[in-house]
Amino acid sequence: MHFDILTLFPEMFSGPLTTSILGKAQESGLVSVDIWNIRDYALDKHRIVDDTPYGGGAGMVLKADVLVRAIESVRGDSKTPVIYLSPQGKVFDQQMAAEIGELPRVILLSGHYEEIDERVRSHWVDLELSIGDYVLTGGELPAMVVVDAVTRLLPGVLGDERSHLQDSFQDGLLDHPHYTRPASFRGLEVPEVLLSGHHDHIRRFRLKESLRRTMLRRPDLLEKKSLTKEERQLLKELATEYSAEGRVNTNESD
User: Fold this and answer.
1) Which has the closest alpha carbon to 111: 131, 95, 97?
2) Does residue 251 sit within a domain?
């Protein structure tokens, strides 16, 4: 897969996109990334990319002519979709990461200053994405988040192809707790079932703990998930446990 990133601050991407899994994915040819400086598409000698908003108001607006030259130059004759990173966009999630990963190429537009000219948003942007209900100084960090989330789902990127299948949100639930050696640490023990070697018991334990964690931390996910018969049964067991305690436990260490 190929990512084209349009930004005013290309130097921000050199570290995050060249290390760890993202760096290895590029070295192996599974992913490629090109960073384009929006300022290179300004034609005046001072390379001005923004101006004051018509009608007055605070902040500066990225100019339509500069942005469109950048988009059209990078996209060429292709129909590559343009994704604009903005706090006003649809909230990015795991399902969207998987859908974007099905594409051969995307252009990520990192906004800055107050906004981009609305004409660009209306006629040259195909999808607007937000990584959360808060405002950042620009779209560079969200672009990095999208690249990271999409890349790790691509075949061959992770060492174990099963890894991402256990991720939080992959099946509509939060991930279950994980443990490793030592089995006993300062009086804290690994759950006995994980040491039993009984694969079905382990699977059921992990599913139940995944449901428990989702119920306590993100109950909204359960409202949207189509539950299996086993998941409904495990939720009943959890409800019975908490009912017997006379409370809903919001601290999993209790």
Assistant:
1) 131
2) no
